[in-house]
Design brief:
The chain has one domain (2-91). It is built from 2 helices and 4 strands; from the N terminus they run αββββα. It has helices at residues 2-28, 84-91; strands at 40-47, 53-60, 63-69, 77-81.
Length: 92
Amino acid sequence: MRRTIFCAALSLSACAMMSQRDYARSITVGHVGCPEREIQVVGEPDVGPMESLRSWEVSCRGNTYYCSKSGDFDGVVRCVKGDRQIADDVAE
């Protein structure tokens, strides 16, 4: 019984992360100059309370972008090309 509950919780967690990656990809469109089908989310997005998306890294057309989102549902998305430190400074 415990194993079943653990596996169910693990599956839900994996699904939640997958949806965060899809969400990150979809809101990155228009900020990096690539269509959604060419945007690859690198690693796992950083999420905050209530699974709100905070920051993520994407690559497309040989470039790396560091993106962040302020606020919850209608927050401002910012993406900076190539330098994580600059992206962290912009996000603050």
